[in-house]
Write a structure and sequence with these properties.
The structure is a homodimer. In chain A, about 85% of the residues lie in helices and about 0% in strands. By secondary structure, chain A is mainly alpha-helical. The longest helix of chain A has 24 residues, at about 60-84. In chain A, helix 1 runs parallel beside helix 4, helix 2 (about 20-30) packs parallel to helix 4 and helix 3 (about 35-55) runs antiparallel to helix 4 (about 60-84). Chain A has one domain (about 5-84): Monooxygenase, CATH 1.20.1280.
C-alpha cells in the first residue's frame, strides 16, 4: 500500500472515530444544546451523499468510513431531538 | 462533468457548509459545552490529513472543501477554549 493511500485511510479513520467521543459526551450529559441542528442535518445529508459517491466509485474505504460516520451522526441527531 | 463528480462535489459542499451554522451557534450562545474537545481535536486532525491527501493527489475539490472545513473547526476549537 502506497503512502498516499495510507494517508487517506488514516484521515478517514480519524474523521470517523472522532464522532465516538461526541456521541458519548451527549449521551452522558443528556444535553446537545450547543450542537447545531442545522449542522447535524446538513452534515448527515452530505455524509449520505459521500456514501452514495463511495458506492458509485466502488471505494470500500469511502463506503466504510461514511457508513460508520452516518450511523454515529444519526444517533447524535436522535439525542438532539430527545435531549434538546 | 459526470454524475459521480457532481455527487462528490455536492457531498463535499454539504459537509463543508454544515460547519457555518455550528460556528454561528457557538458564537451567538457563547457556549460550546456540549461539543466534545476530543471530537474537535480528532476531527480537525483528520481534516488536516485529508488536506495533505488532496494536495498529494492534486484534487482541487478535496483541497478546497477541507481547507474551509479546517478553518471553521479551528475557529470552533478556539471558541471551545474561550467559552468552554
Amino acid at each position: 500500500m502506497d503512502f498516499v493511500t495510507i494517508l487517506g485511510l488514516t484521515a478517514g479513520t480519524l474523521t470517523t472515530i472522532a464522532f465516538f467521543p461526541q456521541l458519548l459526551k451527549v449521551w452522558q450529559s443528556k444535553s446537545a444544546r450547543d450542537i447545531s441542528l442545522t449542522w447535524l442535518i446538513t452534515f448527515s445529508s452530505g455524509i449520505l451523499l459521500w456514501l452514495f459517491y463511495g458506492i458509485s466509485v466502488n471505494g470500500l474505504p469511502i463506503i466504510l468510513s461514511n457508513s460508520i460516520t452516518l450511523a454515529l451522526t444519526l444517533v447524535i441527531l436522535y439525542f438532539k431531538f430527545k435531549f434538546g
